[in-house]
Amino acid sequence: RKSDVSSATKAYNRILEIDPDNYLAHMGIINLGKSALIKQYQEKPGFGSDEKVMKELSEKLMTESEAKNAKYEKLAKDNPTKAVYQLILANNYSYQPVKMQEYLYKAQQLEPNNIDVLRMLAQFEKLKGNNLTANEVYKKLSDLDPQDENAAFAYYYSLGDVDYKQFKVKTEEFIKRFP
Predict the structure, then answer these.
(1) pLDDT at 146 (0 to 100)
(2) How many Å is the Cα radius of gyration of the chain?
(3) CB 162, CB 135: distance < 8 Å
(4) Among 126, 79, 76, CA closest to 102
(5) What is the pTM of this model?
(6) What's the pLDDT score for residue 96?
(7) Cβ neighbours of residue 28 under 8 Å, at least 6 residues apart?
(8) 129: left (phi > 0), else alpha (psi -120 to 50), else beta?
(9) Nearest one of 55, 30, 29 to 44, comparing CA atoms
(10) At a CB cut-off of 8 Å and minimum separation 6, what does 125 contact?
(11) Which of 27, 47, 61, 111 could form a disulfide with 83 if both were Cys (CB 3.0 to 4.6 A apart)?
(12) How many other β-carbons are positioned within 10 Å of the β-carbon of residue 104?
């Protein structure tokens, strides 16, 4: 609903007033805008079957994406020590792996222990087929916060790609640690 999107956007903006570098709030606003635009088109006759409607939606999504990228390029330039803007750009360029990698590695250089950066980096390395690197990043995530159940699970699960014996041992350990 329109009011839900408006309320959520206001909430994210309030978060950004307090913490301008909050990755999740920035991503929330980006995703809400995209979802609202798609929802608007889903209500149009011909959505999904009319090529003209689909082309119009594609063009609007592309225009919106380009505007967001320009905004975050400027924020990255204005805040050269902040990984958050590099990370947002990496996410925004997820359909252009070379650019995504460039921004993601830059974010990692800026903040090598940033949980959001490490999480995206591990997923990216896994998608590239670099299972050993992904596993090392997932381990680092888990080591940074041993009480984080999701980080522990991701690390233990990634062992299945690199060391099946350890995977079995760590899976049992996970079940005991996080019943």
Answers:
(1) 92
(2) 19
(3) yes
(4) 76
(5) 0.87
(6) 93
(7) 8, 12
(8) left
(9) 55
(10) 131, 133, 134, 137
(11) 111
(12) 25
Residue ranges in the chain modelled with pLDDT below 50: none
Q: Which residue reads 């902040």 in tokens?
A: 82
List, as one string, the DSSP characters of 78-143.
Answer: H-TT-HHHHHHHHHHTTTSHHHHHHHHHHHHHH-TT-HHHHHHHHHHHHHTT-HHHHHHHHHHHHH
Residue 148 near residue 138, CB atoms below 8 Å: no
Q: Can you tell me the distance from the alpha carbon of 41 to that of 39, in angstroms, rounded to the nearest whole number? A: 5
What's the distance, Cα to Cα, between the start and end of the chain in Å? 38
Kind plus residue range of the DSSP H or E element containing 175? helix 164-177
* Token pair 């997820």: residue: 94
* DSSP-derived secondary structure for 13-70: HHHHHH-TT-HHHHHHHHHHHHHHHHHHHHTSTTTTT-HHHHHHHHHHHHHHHHHHHH
The token duo for 162 is: 């690199």
Chain segment 73-111, per-residue pLDDT in tens: 999 999 999 999 999 999 999 999 999 999 999 999 999
